[in-house]
Every structure is written in structure tokens, then in C-alpha cells.
Design a protein that fits this description.
heterodimer; A: 167 residues; mainly alpha; 8 helices; B: 377 residues; alpha+beta; 8-stranded antiparallel beta sheet; 12 helices; 16 strands
Chain lengths: 167, 377
Amino acid sequence: MAGISSTSFRALFELYYAPLCRRLTALTGDPVLAEDIVQESFLRLYLSPPPDLSNPGAWLNRVAVNLAYNELKRARRRGPLEALAAGKGQAAPADPVEEVERRDEVERVRVALNRLTPRERFALLLRHSGYSYAEIAAAIHIAPTSVGTILARAQRNFRAVYLDEEG
Amino acid sequence: MAACDEGRLMALLDGELDARERIEIEHHLAACPPCRARLQELRSARREVEESLNAYMGFLEKMEFPTHEAWQRWQSQQVKKGAMNMFTRVKRSVSAAAACLLVAGALTLQPVQTAAANFLQIFRVNQMTTVPISQRNLEAMVQELRQKGGQVKLRELGRISIDGAQGDAMTKEAQSWAEAVSVLGRTLAEPAVPPSLGLKQSNLSYGREFTVKFTLNVDKMNELLRALGSKKFLPPELNGREFSIRFPSIVEASYVPGEPTSRYLHLSIMGAPEIWVPAGVDVDELRSLLLELPILPPDLKERLASVRDWQHTLILPNIDGQGHEVKIGNTIGLLYQSGNDKNHSVALVWQQGDLWFILSGAGLTEEQALSIAQSLE
């Protein structure tokens, strides 16, 4: 009755689970929260699939981004996120020195992103993953004409923290 | 000036201005050195931020999210939420389900009682059988239904409402097995789950009966039937008449492992659902209308038409031969198995007296499932 058979549901899970988790980890800064959100998105797909499911990946992505944004706004999550800092599930580094330097930079990016408001953070990361202004506006519930302003402010605040961390 | 506030300069860099706006702002920039400097600043900041984010995303790209474990977690959460979901699923997909239920209803009707007072025909589902169908055929049917019936919105087919407790009030936690099964109006042995499975009861709850009612919009129904190529249509007298399905009380018990494995067990016990059809509806006619829908594959049509005692039989699809009949005490159950050795799931459905039993789980064998089923006798 749900319109999606259990085998094809499993296939969707196999296909989209990990990529969605990565994207949501970037957005939330928290891999555990990211997995919870992705699980919730699949639950919604399971319980009330949209009548037209020609692009399930896009549908899941939209639902997950929306859940994440609401969650971050609600919880105003910031603070250090140990799981990511510890490099959860990372493959062994090829060159340890390079790896340390790289991780240091990643850590600074993460700290800087965490200082932004959810709105700034989402605007910045969604643009980075190729969203248009119209799509960003829809995802974070603002007018399309305000996207540029938010991005400019996000950029400025990001750099302020990032450069501060460097020095 | 307002023409080139920061937001618009950003939009210019991101290629988000239309031609007119772009020309306007470029004119202004040509004449305004401070704005040019701000644009330059924004541009270099933008580039630095992009580089930082590239490094960050490159790092995340290597993060592993083991899909297999996630799938198992997803499934076991389904079990924990099972009790609620069984109802929410009914509620949420009720509009989509209405058409299906009507099919199931028309195929499984046998009057057990004619309530003279309100001129209702009441039918009780008290038998079951399987009809083989392939995944491919099933998907083709859904596809065709969606394409041809796509013009008609499901919610226009009728009005649906639910009587009875809703939301959190629908299910209650029970303190003991005896308390839970008391809603079924009889006593029942507690299931014996082999200790070797390492499962602990995580949830024991019961729900009171509720009734799903729907009134048909005959014009819209007929529009759908026509789109699906039907030659027969519903009589206009059916318009606005109320059909309902009464779901009796239900008991649900879940068992989860003490250690993180994918094993789980879920048991639901409920009284036989009843379908209430308004007086004057010719159920034989309704059945033949549905059986003659061109979207049913010919072999399926034949199988459905050949079900003896269709009037009180629940028809379960046996997809790709995954199910087979098993003996539980003196009754016949249907056992479905799927998955491989590592991730094996079982579902067992049987009916005894006036109760329906559904046992589902993963990580247990057919024999183990059957022995748990037997222990409920």
C-alpha cells in the first residue's frame, strides 16, 4: 500500500544512506545527529511516500535538509563535536604528517562553521553544494532577495573565526 | 547606495542577477571606487571560504557510514515503534489504502450478521489464503495504476474518518501479559521465547478498537474506474453511503536483544477485522467489477476468481514465492522468509478461533518462529 516495495526501499537505502549522511554531517557538524536525521527521512519516505517519486534522492535530500535546519534552529547546537574531531570511521592516512596538517585545517573549518547561526551556516554550505539562491531561500525559509546578504555576512563571520583560530 | 548593497554584490559574484540588474550594478561599479573595493573584498573572501569548505568536504567524503548496520538499526527501530506505526500507517496511508481495502473487502466478504436496526451488512474476515504474484507484476500494476489513475486524486475518491482513541491514547503500555490480553476478551498463554535467542521483552502494549469510515464519491470513483479501463461502474445510489472497517483490540509485544545484533521479534494479536457495508450494496457485483479491471494481470485474475469461499477469506500476496504454508497446532499458517543467511527475516501469519496472529522477526529460524507460535496455543 505504501507504493514502495520492500526490495526497492532497501535499494534506495543502500544507494542514498551514506551520501546523505555525509552531506548532513557537513550541514550539522555532527555525524551522529546526521545519521539520526537521515534515518528519520527514510522513515518519512516509508510512512508517507509522495505520490510522485520520480526522484527519490532529491526528495530525501530536501526532507533531510529541512529536518536538520529545524533541529539546529531548535537546539541551537554548537559546542565541540568530539566524534568528528576524532575522525570517526576514517580510512588510514597515507601520509601521517600531511594528515595531521589536513585535520588541523578541517578542525578550524568545523569550529568556524559552528560559530555561525544555523541560517548562515546552511546558506554557506548549501551554496557550496551547488544550490541556487532560490533553492537556498526555500530551504532556510527566507526571501530569495535576502540570500546574498546572508551569504556575505556568513562569509565575513566565518573568516573572522577562521583567521582568529589560525593566529 | 542601495543599488549595490552587499547582498546584491554577492548575488553578482554568484551569477544570481538577471541581465537588467547586472547591467545596472555594473554601471554603478564603473562610477564608484568604494563599491569596486567592496566587490573585490567579497570576491577574495568568497574564494577563501570555498577553499576551506573544499578541504572540509574532502575530509567528510572519506567518512564511512556503514549502510548495512544502519539498515539493521532502521529495522529494529521500526520494531520498537511498531505498535504506534501499525496505527499511524493505517491513518496516514488511509486515503491510499481506501481503494486497496475496498478490493480486499469486496473479495473477503461473508455476511455474519445483518444488523436490522441500521440496515448494515457486517462481514468478518476469518480465513486466509495466498495468491502468488511476482514482484515484477506487482510493480507493473502499481505503475499502471499511477499512470492511468493519476488524473484522479485519491483524496477526492471519498471522505475518510476514524472513530475511537487516537494519537497517544491509541495504545497503552501493559504491566503484565494477562493485563494486555484482557482487551482481547479472553486468556492466552504467554509466548515462550527460547532463552538461547537472548531476546528481552522491550514493549508490551495494547490498543482499543477503532473504526475507519469512508464515504465514497461515486462520480470520482467511476472516473478512476474509467481511466483504468473498467467496463463496469458503481451505481449512483452508493454516493455518500458509509463503508467502514472496524479494527478490534490489538496486543503487541516486542523483543529486542540485550546485545547489539540485528535479531528481533515482534508479535501482534488482534481480533478479526470487520467490514461494514451499507445495505443494498451487491457485493458480488462489486467483486466482479474489481476482478474485471484490466490492470490485473490475467493469471492473477484467474487465481483471485478461483479462490473458494472468497466471502470470508483474507487474500495475502505471496511475492516471488517467498511464502509457504506451515502447520501450527491444528491450523495452517503462512510463513514468509526473506534475506540471506546473515540477514534473515521471517514473518508468520495465522488465525485461530477469532484471533489473528502476526509474528515477525529477524535472526531466527523457521523452527524457532514455529515453536514460539505453538507456545501461544
